[in-house]
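Risk register update: the risk that structure generation would not scale has been downgraded. Supporting records follow, first protein first.
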Amino acid sequence: MESKNQFYCENDIPMMECNKVNCLKVCQLNMLAPMWVNKEYKILPCYQNFASPKRLKITLRYIANLNADIYCLCEVEQEQLSDIALSFPGYICVFTSHKRGFWSEWLEDRAWVENGTCILLKTPFSEADSIDFGDGCRCTIIKCTHDLPLTIISVHFDTGDRKYAETEKLLKYIDTISGTCIISGDFNYTNINKFIDAGYSDGNLKGIDTTPLPQGMIDHTLVKGASSIREHILRIPNRNAYTINEVVKDICKTVIKNGSDHYATVSIIHL
């Protein structure tokens, strides 16, 4: 199993293509839900400059240009699904909402919002499923049986201690899957080895051990049962962001570039 992670700028995107049979290009992005950009929660000044419709257009245009086979998106609000579908003609969209109020129960003006995870793919699938972690958090699961058996999971774990119980439940589910399984999303783990070590026993889950960035790289793509995975982090190259002011400037540049405070990742997976 070969794995490698690299940093890329947007101009390098054409380099990241699948040129072989049984190769998948997977894009993952936490889209920064509109509920986080409001009068009650403004951690960065650049957020104030982005109304939700404008920012959504920036994000969708940015990731559509990546031309991935599969998109795993986090912090998608249900009211955004129609715009997402219009931006990805020919893709099937499967959305799973967290329990209403999850991530937003403390926001007085947005506590009713339903947000969750979403998978976009070109290939017809045989079954859509989800896991309810029992705390309001849910993930999206798609199973494909054409050609090679493939399961795709889009997940957004909680930020606190609840993520460890969520991890254990997901890993037990992954253990029952035959064929290839892709797990992608916002893990809220800065070192993905801690996720793998949290309960997966037979060592058959392979992916990227991303060196933590100053602000914490928490978005990952893992794969079980594939021959190789190569992950590319589409971050603005500021390798010297080691003070809080530099980190804030770096994140604000990212928001301007792709409409989110998270970096997109693109993984090339050979089945």
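Supporting record for the second protein:
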Amino acid sequence: MDIDFVRNQGLVVDDDNEPAPENVPQKQVIFVGLFDIQRWGFDGINCKAASVPINLSPCFQSGWSWKKKYLMDVFLKMTPYNFFKKVVIKKTFQLLVENKMRLLGGGEFIKYIGIWLMMSTCSGWSQDYFWSSLNFNERKNLCPYNFTPYMSKR
């Protein structure tokens, strides 16, 4: 049906299932450097696709499952916690000392990161709304979270 449409447009259609002359190699293929049983070309088998198992459900390495875990366990699994511990917390504490600010505890820092991750899932509110002293009101204060009980803003 598509071929008839193209022919009706006045175009030539070569549908004899033979390769186009420009796609046929004119020179003899050289097999220098190959072993006796090796040849250049594609035999129709994708070895990578054949060796990788298919239809696997997504999973964590070494069989870890998020089921029956606390949210903190899942959070620690999904974040580069060692990087936070060894690099981010260390550099943050250095900057706090340099600026003569109050130091954070390790758990307090993780809570702070978690709050910022939670805030990043919401759109339409400035940082101030998340630490608002106003009671929740559907018409005036639509921000779904208030982090004042968990941590001060400054």
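Helices lie at 2-8, 47-51, 71-78, 81-98, 106-120, 127-130. On this basis the risk owner (M.S.) recommends closing the item.
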